[in-house]
Amino acid sequence: MKQVLVAVGIILRHNQTFVTLRADDKHQGGKWEFPGGKVENDETVLAALRRELYEEVGIAVIQTQPLMTIEHDYGDKRVCLEVQVVTGFEGEPYGREQQQGRWVSVDLLDPQEFPAANQAIIEALQKHYRRDDVGLNP
Ligand SMILES: Nc1nc2c([nH]c(=O)n2[C@@H]2O[C@H](COP(=O)(O)OP(=O)(O)OP(=O)(O)O)[C@@H](O)[C@H]2O)c(=O)[nH]1
Ligand SMILES: [Mg+2]
């Protein structure tokens, strides 16, 4: 099975991150996610991240830091998530594709509400970006 390369953005402000709800008819539908999407053939990961975060949540990405790469096999789909922390952006994120979106404290992220591949992301965030941290210094 071919692996899908995905750019994922952890939009961070203080100790909160902006998450969106995946539509029921999509892969892993009904789960919360970090905004992002597939990297097109002619794109870099960062270009895909910029494009997807504008399309999905209406922000302009200004500054990022790589967090991790996660390969995961869902059985029906294999993904490689290139996860970036978005430490600088312009605009206020919202569900630009009519999907639900909300800010949530990193401490309160519940891995059960996210696709299985996200477990390692949530662990890393809860380790490095705890309550009272400004969020910029791992
Ligand atoms: N955006 C995003 N995708 C994730 C996360 N975790 C995770 O396993 N994925 C998987 O990555 C794959 C691609 O993401 P996507 O569905 O957002 O891709 P896309 O925006 O290009 O969507 P499209 O297929 O509607 O054009 C999906 O199979 C999705 O289940 C996550 O936190 N955020
Ligand atoms: Mg997407």
UniProtKB/TrEMBL annotation:
Domain of life: Bacteria
Keyword annotations from UniProtKB, A to Z: DNA damage, DNA repair, DNA replication, Hydrolase, Magnesium, Metal-binding, Mutator protein
Chain positions recorded as 8-oxo-dGTP binding sites: 22, 27, 33-36, 118
Catalytic activity: 8-oxo-GTP + H2O = 8-oxo-GMP + diphosphate + H(+); 8-oxo-dGTP + H2O = 8-oxo-dGMP + diphosphate + H(+)
Family to which this protein belongs: Belongs to the Nudix hydrolase family.
UniProt xrefs under NCBIfam families: mutt
Protein name: 8-oxo-dGTP diphosphatase
The organism of origin for this protein: Salinimonas marina
